[in-house]
Amino acid sequence: MWSFFSRDPIKDFAYEIGPQVAELNEKSLWSLHHGKRKSNGDSVSIFVYEGKAGNDSQLMLIKAAFKRVKTLRHPNFIIYLDGLETEKSCYIVTEPITPLITYLDEQLNDEKGPVQQLVISWGLHQLAKGLSFLINDCNLVHNNVNLSSVFVDQAGEWKLGGMEYSQTCGGSQDPFTPIIKGLPYLEKYDPPEKITKKPGEKWSSDMWGLGCLTWEVFNGPFVKSTSLKNPGKIPKSLIPNYCELVGANPKSRPNPNKFIESCRAPDGFMNNKFVTTMLFLEEIQIQDNEAKVQFFNGLTQIVDLFPTSFCKQKILPQLLHAFEYGNVGSSVLAPLFKLGKLLSTEEYQKKMVPCVVKLFSSTDRTTRVKLLQQIESFAEHLSPQVVNDQIFPSIVSGFMDSNPVVREQTIKSMLHLACKLNYKNLNEELLKHFARLQSKDDQGGIRTNTTVCLGKVACYLHPQVRQRVLSSAFLRALKDPFPPARQAGILAMSATHNFFTLQESSQRLLPALCQMSMDPDKTVRDQVFRSIKCFLGKLEKVSENPDLLAEVEKEVNAGGLGATNTSGWAGWAVSGMTSLTSKIYSSKKGPQTTVPTPISAAAAATTTATTAATSSAVGALKAASNSTKKVEIKKSNPGQSAISKSTYKDDDDEDGEDDRSDYGNDDVIVKDNHNHGTAAADDDDGEEVGWGDQEWGDMEVSL
């Protein structure tokens, strides 16, 4: 029983006291230690005071500070978590913090000059705001504002500590005369009125301390107060305010609120985008939706100028909260995903992935488009299970959306998701939509991008599916009336040449390519000759040495090869399509029915010979977006397909049946919805052929 009363409370302390932080030695009554919670290992900071005989005055200050810290709750003061008080010792547990002097030497020096000033401007703003709360609202005087009483949390926020000398204004001691602190190091921070006895305001001593702190932040610790007469490296925009802080007359020193107001004035030191952004985030709960949308729309462009710690610990949590509970729409997506890159893999899975899944279930088109535009920034963090079970079922509806911008972005998103799709979603569901888009979409740019995307994801397809699909898809693209679509088909063949057998190359691909050598568009012809040389080179190589056949065709039946290097041949189509659709479909003038389609525009360009001698298909895309004349595409060569007045529609036949096409042969039947007939591509033997025995939706492949 007696052992219970004699137990040492320190042994039952819920926190493990770690190594001491040396920067506060002889600068504070406390010693600061790193620590962690015994139950879960969470990091904390622990202020420790071990009393000695004859130091009763210090013990009284420590116990008073302990009570003050427990009851003082404000964002600009260090956060109290727990504490322990014994007869001769005291322990205060706070959030993980770093002394400001350490932060300036080790972390802030790594930032660039402009970023350093942004951090300092916000830090001084927060300290002045904390002093305003303490003095104006709590009627307390800090009496210890200096470099050793300010700390920085994990987000980079500057916070006040060192409350052991605080006192009530109008208390037992004269509030204009600082108390005796007992530490020689702190004497240099005493204001001049300690000697002159001049009366001042209740904030005079603390604002003097803020002036000393400002000088040391820019110039390093000083030895004597006479150093304050030379501003040194203090920025010119801050010098007038600094001079007011360290004025000899205590009554001339500004109230903390007035100091903030003066620094936030035009051309003031705190009048910058970073402080404005942080202030908006602090008050975001009371802002209207219009202000929030405007703020988030402009945040993406300026967030790169901000310190990484603030972006990750302060701005990103606010964006997540705004997405979860605020009615801000899609405006939050761009900065949200941009800052999400700062998270670790574990943090991303916990914070960002649930948001992504929720966003894909949204029916708002603007949200869907912006989400798809950002998919490159978060696709790598999505697990295959999440993609197949929660994201792909939602995203697949975009292939059939009536808005061409949604269809386009959905196609492009497959470049980043294909590697995570399972067999059914990739080899059946996705290819079914690709077949319909390539053969029936009324926008040439979308048909072009479908071919491009198929070429890029070919390496992920099952070998049996790939052998049946690729040649049929790319040969179909050669019949397209839109020149960039034909060029995409030719380039895709060349980029995926390793997936074709030599027999297929010689019997199906080369004959078709030779016919395309008479294409009316020179950019198409140029690519045809390069592609022919590629396939002929392989055939010639094996002809000279038949033993090389197995090596040349080694990738034909290989699966899961990873992404092929197609940036050089296909990047033009993806990027070019973005500018094309933005010109055609983003216009708010008039209904969509009055907008010229890329097909008719390309036809006009072909008829008037304006596409001659261009170096890339980007020029063709831009030319197409500027043309409005609709003309007939006539058969100019024996090898060309005869497509007359054909428009690529996604309508069903009059009998109500879906006329969806699939890949199975090398020719295409295009539905002519104007004449209610078909314009068939002729095979070499003159027969009209379809696309195979099965539709993509019904395609079955035995493994």
Automatic annotation (TrEMBL):
Residue ranges with Polar residues bias: 637-646
InterPro entries: ARM-like, ARM-type_fold, CIK-Related_Protein, Kinase-like_dom_sf, Prot_kinase_dom
GO molecular function: ATP binding; protein kinase activity
Coiled-coil residues: none
Pfam families: Pkinase
Record region (Disordered): 627-703
PANTHER family to which the protein is assigned, alphabetical: N-TERMINAL KINASE-LIKE PROTEIN, SCY1-RELATED S/T PROTEIN KINASE-LIKE
Functional description taken from the UniProt entry: Regulates COPI-mediated retrograde protein traffic at the interface between the Golgi apparatus and the endoplasmic reticulum. Involved in the maintenance of the Golgi apparatus morphology.
Protein name according to UniProt: N-terminal kinase-like protein
Species of origin: Helobdella robusta (Californian leech)
